[in-house]
Amino acid sequence: MATQRGRKTASGRKRTNNRKRNTRRKQDSFSTEVKDEVILLLGIAVTILLFLSNFHLIGKAGDAVSAVMFGVFGILAYITPPVLFLGILFLILNFGNRVATIKLLAGTFLFLDLEVVAALIGGIGNAGSTVVSYYSYANTHKISGGVIGSALAGGLTKTIGMVGTVALVLILMMLCLVLLTEKSIVRQLAGAGRHVYDSAREDVENRIERNEILREQRLQEREIRMQERAEREKRRQEEKSLRMDNKVSGITDATTLKAPKKTKKAEAKPISVSEESLDVRQLQIEEMPAVQDMDEIEKIHIKGIEPVQSMKAEDVAAIEKPEKKPVKQPAYNREHKVQVMESAPDDFDMTQISAALEESADRIAGLTPEPAYVRTKPVAGKAAESGQPIGNQSTQTMQSAGQKTAGAAEIPISDQISQPPKKPKPYKKPPLTLLKRSDASSNKNSERQLKETALQLKQTLKTFGVNVTITDISQGPAVTRYELQPEMGVKVSKIVNLSDDIKLNLAATDIRIEAPIPGKAAIGIEVPNKENSMVLLRDLLESDNFKNFKSNLSFAVGKDIAGQTVVTDIAKMPHVLIAGSTGSGKSVCINTLIMSILYKASPEDVKLIMVDPKVVELSVYNGIPHLLLPVVTDPKKAAGALHWGVNEMTERYKKFEDMHVRDLKGYNKKVEEMTENGGAELPQKLPQIVIIVDELADLMMVAPGEVEESICRLAQLARAAGIHLVIATQRPSVDVITGLIKANMPSRIAFAVSSGVDSRTILDMNGAEKLLGKGDMLFYPQGYPKPVRVQGAFVSDKEVADVVDYLKENNDVQSQDEVNQQIEAMGNGSGDAPGKNGGENERDMYFADAGRFIIDKDKASIGMLQRVFKIGFNRAARIMDQLCDYGVVGEEEGTKPRKVLMTEEQFEQLLEEI
To answer: 763: helix, coil or strand?
Structure first.
């Protein structure tokens, strides 16, 4: 029992000792944590007080402490409190760690090194040589290294000199940095050198590879050019050989050549129209360097945007009017074709071969033209023997030397236009004195104001953290553009987003930012001028750009942002859409376009059709010789005018096909050559036609389907026929400017609009909502990468009236009653489609072709007629009703297709009877 009691007592004593030991250990750890936290808080408080005392924020006690700190540590007194706090914190967190102790000592030596550096920079000689002088100098001037730095620096300089002191301090600093960062400086330098070496080697390899790729591309381009040159030479030789094999029939009248060998050269000279067209395209490509040279010359005199320049006169002359030598010889005919002869060299006596007109007339009379519809089958019976195409009842046959006869389904309207009853007298252009000239002392911002605005703009951007350089200033009539080049790393969007802030600081009505400027490494900020300069039409017409512009459809648009005259060719646009809000300058722009044509072209070369649903805008031009018919104001009659334009386009293409030419230019050139050679009943030259519609919205409200169809057909096909559209509207919405119309109008002119939605409808981009109005436009012709801002020219109503009165008094006006009657008939037809000749009782021109096609397919469908003949639904339905009236197809049977009731032979017999 005693033994057991003794064991229990011993075990109880052990548990009590363990419990006491654990309790003591917990108390020690708790007291250590509390002590560390107290030291940390006290360190923070002392650090804050010492730091604030350096700035005299703690009163007199703080000033005394600050004086002691500056005297002891010098200029490093500013960083001594935070350094001291970081050292205490590092020691508490890593207490007992040997590596931490070494790093703390390295940091202390680094601080002392900085003290020595501060003392050397502050000047030891000025601080004296005693500790008191060190203290007072540092306390008074708050520079140098204080007592510590000055004492260490003074001792070192006396012992090892200034150079040795600097070397020693640098070595110790590098050693301390290595101990603190645990990274080798030598290894870092070696790694940096290796990186530089690798980068340089990669750059060299990339440069070599890029040069190799460029060399291969140049070789490929050279091979392609050589192949193309060889193909052109081969094709030219084949064409020459084909031309030499042509046989000439007829009688030769007194053709005498000097040498037999030269005769072959003379025979090889005739060129075909296709070859001439190729030459024209080559000249158009080769003229581009001349325009670029002009831009470089302009850059020398005027800084800013490269102005839009007209084509040089000598470049255009090579294309528009090739040099020809008149040859007065008898006319000649060739079998079934007319060939263009090139002028002979000076050392040849070239004579033309005269054709036997009687035999040619017999042959020509036997020719039969091909019908327009190519999918017809061979015709049996009397129709095949007669060889006449079946269309409307009225036909007309035209025969001329060297030209095939064609049986027309209607009287060609273009013949009525181009063959007036009498030859008018030569066109007398109006003088420029009828127009007002701008004042020479036009109001413009002074150079000083421009530079002040540029400086203000630069400072405004700098306040938002964007540093830019003003590289150029271009002052236009109404807007000045400042070209900015941002520093590296600045996003373009950052400047664009500051547009409202820039407008506020410049006190501008509105600004437009072009980022970036095409072809320049700069951003353009367009600011309105405080004093605008008016651009008058006479200034543009008197400029060399307009005078040297050889096109008959020259259009003096206005002046660009650099004050240069902008002249364009409507024939190259070739159709233009003008849109903008009310009062923005659309009607003035149209007047400028019309006046440019009146001052440039004669009525024989250019004809105008004006559609003015607003009645008051274009009616002043009634009576000028260029008008094909009086200004159309009735919307229904306007739709008929557009239909007539489609008919005229179709007729012209038929003439081009008969003359074996591709466009109006080739046709007129061949007519000129035929006129020089002489002959009976020669065709007349065809003029270019410009159809101007001042308000499209009114037409779209009356007859949207027919107007849209006619505009789209003209815009797609009328360029080569010499017919061009100019359409203006003040409501640029998608229900007026439909997708089809916008897709077929490649050139756009946008005036001020109310919203970005309207701007995107016109230009497919924002920008027009930033315009100022009063002729301020965005000119976006075909081929431009971005719109160009142009100030349009102004012409007053009085000037227009004076020019019109002058033209009426000094020029003859040709009556076009036939055209007017045809357009009125189309307008009164309430929607007759293009191509129909008369009223509702006459058959459509596609009646015969549609009947053959339906019998061939054994299926009568309106939709099929629409697809095959490319006509509208109303017209296809009328053709189907006409076929039903003549018994070709049956009546409607609900959703079922109509029945085909005739065979081919029966239909051909019907056509002969009717």
So the answer is: helix
